[in-house]
Amino acid sequence: xxxxxxxxxxxxxLVRGKWIFGYALIYLLISDAxxxxxxSGPKALLSISNVMLLLVPxxxxxxxxxxxxxxxxxxxxxxxxxxxxxxxxxxxxxxxxIPLSSAYTLGVLIPMLYSGMLNGEQIVSILMLLxxxxxxxxxxxGIGFWLGLSYFEDRIKGLGFALVGWLFLAVLYDGxxxxxxxxxxxxxxxxxxxxxxxxxxxxxARIIVLLEFDISALMGxxxxxxxxxxxxxxxxxxxxxxxxxxxxxxxxxxxxxxxxMDF
Amino acid sequence: MIEFKNITKKFGKLTxxxxxxxxxxxxxxxxxxxxxxxxxxxxxxxxxxLVKPTEGNIYVNEETxxxxxxxxxxxxxxxxxxxxxxxxxxxxxFRFIKKIRNGEPSHEDELISYFGLEPELxxxxxxxxxxxxxxxGAVLSMMFNPDLLIFDEPTAGLDPRSSVQFxxxxxxLKSEGKTILLTTHIMSEIEELADYLIFIVEGKIKYHGPMxxxxxAHKSQRLEGAVAKMMEEAAA
Lengths: 263, 236
What we know:
The complex is a heterodimer of chains A (263) and B (236). With 263 residues, chain A is an all-alpha fold. Helices cover 85% and strands 0% of the residues of chain A. The longest helix of chain A has 41 residues, at 220-260. Chain B is built from 8 helices and 10 strands. In chain B, 41% of the residues are buried. Chain B is of the alpha/beta class. The interface between A and B is medium-sized, with 25 and 27 residues.
């Protein structure tokens, strides 16, 4: 109950800050433009997915850390009250993760709504796109929180690691995988490669997107392995479950950190 | 009663509190003094559960402090540097804390008028002067009528008039039988308000007992002289 009181306050504070509307507006404009130029078919959906895969982790992670720094006073004030640290943590986390997810969902959904995309047979793909965005938001807000708590007194470090972490997972990781494949191409490396993919949540989300849209040409090496290994359906299930597992890790880490740290 | 049992706190290699044992009985006012960086604030923060001791345990009314939060129901805390959510107005802040406390009975109106905070109620916390921020902290610490009040450098940002007002309030609370714990650098304040004294140097307790006893031991009229002497002895 008290978590909700905190969440409610955080929400009001976000609304007052107004940037959350800007965040929703970005998705709205991008989705609108992509649907306008790409038609209301799977092509537009795929383009939106690509934007989502880059933008959601970046904003969630950076803002997750930044938000903790901004709420420092608030946190210190509440810690001296008769309040469980766990309650406070979920209030803070929910106060950011829920508005971020809502902004993403609304921003993507509204243009689809007035383009009449929801009536078609793509409804499953659209729901999946929304679900993936929400899961990634929750996950990377958790990682941002974890970094923010680990470097609570040193925000340059916290934000720096968040930025580098995003660059690594969203951009460099694929290059690394390619490099390994290039160097070790003569060996049977399919299974290690599969494991390597599961270690990157953004990769997992991308593979789910590619498997859903069944674009083998764009699947890349790891996507192709996934497809061959599990087939489309089981591939999506396996990747989805791994992603859920991924969601638990940063949340477990940051609740533990929050419970034990000094303020 | 507050009990510190063998409390040690290390931040990395730095030992801030070094095996502290303390018993603070109910219904008395205790002043904590010591040089800068001697561990006063860390001791207070450990008592509040903001800082987790490396070793040892703290008990408030025989209830352990670690992994516990209900005991804070009976504590009012006024921090050294009062920092509050910037966008909240003063009135919103009070409302919010009352909600967090599940609408516990509070007498903030009386305290707001006592400290003259009425004109500030609709202002955002970030626009408040340092002194008014301190007053908000004072109201927050007293509004739920707690049995234990902890003031960390309470008068540091207050003008003389507010400072006198604050001290009168503390005396009033004392006469009501509340337990009061306060740190300050102003020795006259301790003389005015406290009956007992805790002297901390480098995380160790050098003196704990009635103030008069300390003055007699050092053949000193004023606390300032006695404490200065102790500091010199500790440094030597």
